[in-house]
């Protein structure tokens, strides 16, 4: 399984090829993940519908700019590029190859469409979730109402399942909603939409806290327990430990990356 996924991982950051499902199949991942937002597709767009299921507008699948270098791929991807790399759920995953990071590639317009176009719009839709109160958690984390049920389910599961030492780690959160950019960039953080949460900072690792080697590469590191990450994945959150630019405290609600065929599986084609 690991060898198969690694082969997929190496190929997916490159140009789309036979290893990737057809565009219509991958567009369906967004319809499955957000059925009240997207109500159809065309050859090159996702159709956004209003509350009455009338066509409101469309989102372009491909921006027509062709292949990009990694910086452009990260800074300004189109919708197709956000699902070009497939996320692999579960505890058995290899060290991510260079610049392989499904979920870290984000089309800003997608999140503005789903969660709100600006700070005021997002803030008007925030709700508070008591984080692991039965295991000593004291935080009320603010998240988007669309994510609240999933995050509540994670909190409940962690309270119910974790051994004391792991519960002590998981119950300490560095927050969910905060309107900001990603550190050192102009990119809007997913915390700005209330769909990400950071926990367990004392045992976390982050690529930007490390020095690259002489070749400019970052050496992956993770000390975070899989038992915690497992609960998040079961409810549609990707884990930043599975990125080349690792962020092991970070969990982000991305249900489209768990929908077939946008998720990696042992049966995925090479």
Q: Taking strands numbered 1, 2, ... along the chain, how are they ordered across the largest sheet?
A: 6-7-9-8
How do the helices and strands follow one another from N- to C-terminus? HHEEEHHHHEEHHEEHEE
Largest sheet: 4 strands, antiparallel
- Taking pLDDT < 50 over at least 5 consecutive residues as the criterion, the unreliable ranges are 1-18, 266-270
Rg over C-alpha atoms, rounded to the nearest angstrom: 18 Å
Principal-axis shape? globular
The percentage helix is 25-40%
| Secondary-structure class | alpha+beta
- Cα(first) to Cα(last) distance is 12 Å
Strand content: 5-15%
**Total DSSP helices:** 9
Give the number of domains. 1
Mean pLDDT: 90
Tally of strands: 9
Any overview of this molecule?
With 270 residues, the chain is an alpha+beta fold. It has one domain (2-21, 65-258). The protein has nine helices and nine strands. Strands 6-7-9-8 form a four-stranded antiparallel sheet. A three-stranded antiparallel sheet has the order 1-2-3, with helices on one face. A hairpin with a 3-residue loop joins strand 1 and strand 2. Helix 7 (145-161) packs antiparallel against helix 9. The radius of gyration is 18 Å and the shape is globular. The termini are close together.
């Amino acid at each position: 399984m690991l060898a198969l996924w690694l082969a997929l991982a190496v190929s997916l950051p490159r140009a789309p090829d036979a290893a990737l499902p057809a565009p219509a199949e991958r567009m369906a991942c967004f319809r499955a993940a957000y059925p009240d937002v997207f109500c159809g597709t065309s050859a090159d767009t996702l159709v956004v519908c209003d509350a009455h299921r009338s066509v409101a507008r469309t989102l372009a699948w491909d921006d027509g700019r062709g292949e990009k270098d990694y910086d452009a791929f990260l800074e300004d991807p189109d919708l197709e590029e956000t699902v070009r790399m497939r996320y692999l759920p579960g505890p058995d995953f290899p060290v991510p190859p260079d610049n392989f990071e499904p979920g870290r590639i984000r089309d800003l317009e997608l999140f503005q469409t789903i969660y709100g176009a600006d700070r005021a719009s997002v803030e008007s839709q925030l709700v508070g979730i008591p984080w692991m109160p039965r295991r000593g958690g004291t935080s009320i984390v603010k998240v988007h109402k669309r994510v609240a049920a999933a995050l509540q389910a994670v909190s409940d599961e962690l309270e119910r399942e974790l051994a004391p030492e792991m519960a002590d780690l998981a119950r300490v959160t560095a927050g969910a909603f905060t309107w900001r950019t990603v550190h050192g960039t102009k990119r809007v953080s997913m915390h700005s939409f209330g769909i990400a949460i950071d926990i367990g900072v004392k045992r976390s690792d982050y690529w930007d806290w490390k020095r690259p080697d002489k070749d400019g590469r970052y050496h992956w590191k993770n000390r975070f327990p899989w038992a915690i990450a497992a609960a998040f994945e079961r409810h549609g959150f990707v884990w930043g430990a599975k990125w080349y630019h690792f962020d092991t405290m970070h969990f982000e609600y991305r249900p489209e990356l768990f929908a077939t065929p946008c998720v990696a599986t042992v049966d995925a084609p090479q």
